[in-house]
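STRUCTURE:
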């Protein structure tokens, strides 16, 4: 019962839609109504409000970090911590509060990885920042960082329960960006900071 409650609580925390909350706070339109239609920080940035985008980014990242950190602090087993990590991440992707249509999970995944292993999280985050800076494509940065995450985990810790969790998160992130990759190939993907479509 304790395990089930921990996983449910993590899922509900992951379901909290910070893109919607920050948009309400700053009087912005529903982020699902413009740009990519994704309730995430990159799309909120397309509104032109950097503060709202930053609040979304921090909120989405913090909930991923907080769920794992609390599970670790309570002395949960590695297996249960891994399930909590997956639950909070999947809660963001498929939130009950948004009819299971959530964001793409980049910030939440970063928070999860930073809590699981700060060094791993920094390596993945550094990959995202480097690719995003060079290419100006958030989606390309996310896909490449996600692809590298299991490799970083394997190099740092070898084969174990962590690489299983990281691998699932990685595959989910890449899957969530499938349409972005198609637009990248077609030369139609929006760059970071581009304004919303009307």
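SEQUENCE:
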């Amino acid at each position: 019962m304790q395990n089930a409650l921990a996983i449910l609580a993590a899922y509900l925390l992951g379901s909290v839609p910070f893109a919607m909350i920050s948009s309400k706070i700053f009087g912005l339109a529903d982020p699902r109504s413009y740009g990519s239609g994704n309730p995430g920080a990159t799309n909120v940035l397309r509104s032109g409000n950097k503060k709202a985008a930053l609040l979304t980014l921090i909120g989405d990242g913090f909930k991923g970090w907080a769920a794992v950190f609390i599970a670790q602090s309570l002395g949960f087993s590695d297996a249960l911590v891994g399930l909590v990590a997956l639950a909070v991440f999947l809660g963001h992707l498929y939130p009950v509060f948004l009819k299971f249509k959530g964001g793409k999970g980049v910030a939440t995944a970063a928070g999860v990885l930073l809590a699981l292993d700060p060094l791993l999280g920094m390596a993945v985050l550094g990959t995202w920042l480097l690719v995003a800076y060079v290419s100006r494509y958030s989606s390309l940065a996310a896909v490449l960082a996600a692809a590298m995450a299991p490799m970083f985990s394997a190099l740092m810790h070898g084969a174990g329960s962590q690489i299983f969790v990281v691998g699932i998160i990685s595959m989910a992130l890449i899957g969530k960006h499938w349409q972005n990759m198609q637009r990248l190939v077609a030369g139609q993907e929006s760059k970071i900071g581009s304004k919303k479509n009307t």
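REMARK: The longest helix spans residues 50-73.
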